[in-house]
Amino acid sequence: MAEPDARELTCREVVVLATDYLEGALPPRERMDFERHLVWCSWCRDYLDQIRTTIELTGALPEEEEESLSPEVREQLIEAFRHWKRARDG
C-alpha cells in the first residue's frame, strides 16, 4: 500500500502543532509536513524561534520568582520581546 502524498500545512496548522513539534510528539509524517512548511515560510520559522526563546527564558526562571514578577517587569519583558520581533522583521 502506498503512503499518502504529503500535504501542505497552513500557517494556522503550524501554529497549532508547534508545541507538539517542539516536544517531539508529532508522528513522523506530520513532522515531515511541518518541517517542509518551515522550509518556505519565514513567518512560521520566526514564530517557532519566538516560542523556543520564550521556553528558554521562562524555563530558566524558577516558579517562585516567576510568580513574584511585578506587572512592570512583565510589561518590560513583553516589550523586549516585541522589540526583538520588530528588529528581526527588519
The parts where pLDDT drops under 50 for at least 5 residues are: none
Cα gyration radius (Å): 17 Å
Query: What is the SS-derived class?
Result: mainly alpha
Report the principal-axis shape: elongated
Query: Which range best describes the helical content: under 10%, 10-25%, 25-40%, 40-55%, 55-70% or over 70%?
Result: over 70%
**What fraction of the residues are assigned to beta strands by DSSP?**
under 5%
Distance between the termini: 48 Å
Give short descriptive properties of this protein.
single chain, 90 residues, mainly alpha, 2 domains, 5 helices, elongated
Task: Please summarize what this structure is.
The chain is mostly helical and 90 residues long. The protein has 5 helices and no strands.
Structure overview:
The chain is mainly alpha-helical and 90 residues long. The protein folds into 2 domains: 59 residues, no CATH class; 28 residues. The protein is built from 5 helices and no strands. Helix 1 runs parallel beside helix 3. The longest helix is centred in the C-terminal third of the chain and has 19 residues. The radius of gyration is 17 Å and the shape is elongated.
